[in-house]
Write a structure and sequence with these properties.
The protein is an alpha/beta fold and 439 residues long. The chain has two domains: 6-209, Carbamate kinase, CATH 3.40.1160.10; 296-436, VC0802-like (2-Layer Sandwich), CATH 3.30.2130.10. It is built from 14 helices and 16 strands. An eight-stranded mixed beta sheet has the order 3-4-2-1-7-9-10-8, sandwiched between helices. It has a six-stranded antiparallel beta sheet with strand order 12-13-11-14-16-15. Helix 1 packs across helix 3 (56-77), helix 1 packs across helix 6 and helix 9 (242-250) runs antiparallel to helix 10 (261-267). It is globular. Adenosine-5'-diphosphate binds next to loops.
């Protein structure tokens, strides 16, 4: 059994719904994970924002815009009147439940309920289409099996047990359909796996059922060697090791949710990135094989803060780094990069919610300075330290760019740099030019 996940653009219009229906109905008894139609989750976030600010008119306008969009899709999507009627009735109930939030004090529980509606809508529309086409589809509701624990991590044991039971209850289905992104949390409330989280849903499911393969279908022919939104002429990487893909996803390659590769890697289930607009294209295969001697791709992660603590008094004393780390831990703030010298340590974080408190606490141990609006550039490939010349090729590409930090040796697959956000595009271009151009 495989897991096939289709992102927002893959279900972005009535035509795309039909394309996906034809891909999945010919692919066997698999689990299909759907995202919200592209733009929907953004609109739902916008509605929640209006409701927090008690701008009910703004909320109503956005709700009615969405209602029109879905009415148009339904008109175009189905041949049978009964399918249209069922889909219209479902949409009405969804938009009624969102509109009901304009009458009360808005809470974060309601916000998460609203954000869940995009995936619920697209899976209902797809299930209705498949039934119209004569496919025996079994909807397996994500809210019946996808769970996160009190620290927001997937509860793999609970997912595995509930999902297995739900699949076993419908042995005659041609295929199973579920929603990406949404889940229940430890308080039994509707929650989600963060933006872009449908990829994570697919990989958690793939690991839970020990799938043959996890396929992430999107609007591009695989993971490219640089960010195609910034650099022209990028090309798809045909093969990546799990760790290379995990680093690229974590360090900004938007095609994958930052942590989605982890469950697949632990379960050793291959992940394939495929293009819904060009289903025959080979895409990118991610598994546990490494390609010796290859630099694969570059990615960038914005909104990074760099914090430097200088202390000639403390650094050589043992226990200094532990005290520094404890401060970050007490604010549940993960550290991305770290560089040390005899007199100081520089660290980066992307979650700056507690930056002021962290800086305040760090001042006990030395002089603290902060650089905001920084960007981590991550170069991924075979970066084994025994390979000669790889670091120098990368560094050479950056000779005209001011580099604030360099991190190498933390893994066999990555060398990372911290640069100013304003230098991001120039850095990505320079790296593509030096590492991937054929001339
Ligand atoms: P989906 O809606 O299917 O989840 P996303 O928008 O999340 O799709 O991801 C696909 C997009 O990621 C592509 O259209 C592309 O613009 C962007 N992207 C950013 N970096 C990369 C990369 N290194 N390789 C491929 N796509 C990338
Ligand atoms: N619909 C959600 C989002 O837009 C989840 C996803 O698309 O993966 O973030
Ligand atoms: Mg995505």
């Amino acid at each position: 059994m495989k897991v096939l996940k289709f992102g927002g653009t893959s279900v972005g219009s009535a035509r795309r719904f039909r394309d996906v229906a034809s891909i999945i109905s010919g692919a066997g008894k698999n689990i299909v994970v759907l995202s919200a139609m592209s733009g929907t989750t953004n609109s739902l976030v916008e509605i929640a924002g209006y409701l927090y600010n008690q701008n009910f008119e703004g909320a109503r306008d956005t709700i009615s815009g969405l209602q029109k969009k879905y009415a148009g899709v339904i008109d175009e999507l189905y041949a049978k009147e009964e399918s249209k009627a069922a889909a219209r009735e479902y949409c009405e109930s969804v938009f009624d439940s969102i509109s009901a939030c304009t009458k009360e004090l808005f809470t974060d529980v309601q916000e998460r309920m609203i954000l869940a509606q995009g995936e619920l809508l697209s899976s209902f529309l797809m299930a209705t289409l498949l039934k119209e086409l004569g496919v025996r589809v079994q909807v397996v509701p994500a809210l019946s099996f996808m769970r996160i624990d009190a620290s927001g991590e997937p509860d793999s044991d609970a997912v595995k047990a509930s999902l297995r039971k739900l699949l076993d209850e419908a042995p005659d289905a041609d295929l199973y359909l579920t929603q990406g992104f949404i889940c229940l949390n430890a308080r039994e409330e509707i929650d989600n796996l963060k933006r872009g989280g449908s990829d994570y849903t697919a990989c958690i499911i793939g690991a839970a059922i020990q799938a043959e393969e996890i396929q992430i279908w999107t609007d591009i022919d695989g993971l490219h060697n640089n960010d195609p939104r910034i650099v022209k002429g990028t090309s798809a990487v045909r093969h990546l090791h799990f760790e290379e893909a995990a680093e690229l996803a974590y360090f900004g390659a938007k095609i994958l949710h930052p942590t989605c590769i982890l469950p697949a890697r632990y379960a050793n289930v291959p992940v394939r990135l495929l293009n819904t607009m060009d289903p025959q294209a080979p895409g990118t295969l991610i598994d546990n094989r490494a390609d010796a001697g290859a630099i694969k791709a570059v990615a960038a992660k914005d909104n990074i803060a760099a914090i430097k603590i200088k202390s000639s008094r403390m650094l050589l004393a043992h226990g200094f780094l532990r005290k520094v780390f404890e401060i970050f831990e007490s604010y549940r703030t993960p550290i991305d990069m770290i560089c040390t010298s005899e007199v100081g340590v520089s660290l980066t974080i992307d979650d700056t919610r507690y930056l002021n408190e962290i800086v305040h606490d760090l001042k006990k141990y030395g002089t603290v300075s902060v650089d905001l609006d920084m960007c981590i550039i991550c170069v991924v490939g075979d970066m084994d330290w025994n390979n000669r010349g790889y670091e120098s090729r990368v560094l050479d590409a950056l000779k005209d760019i001011p580099v604030r930090m360099v991190s190498y040796g933390g893994s066999n697959y990555n060398i990372s740099f911290l640069v100013r956000e304003e230098d991001k595009a120039a850095t990505l271009l320079a790296l593509s030019d030096k590492l991937f151009s054929n001339d």
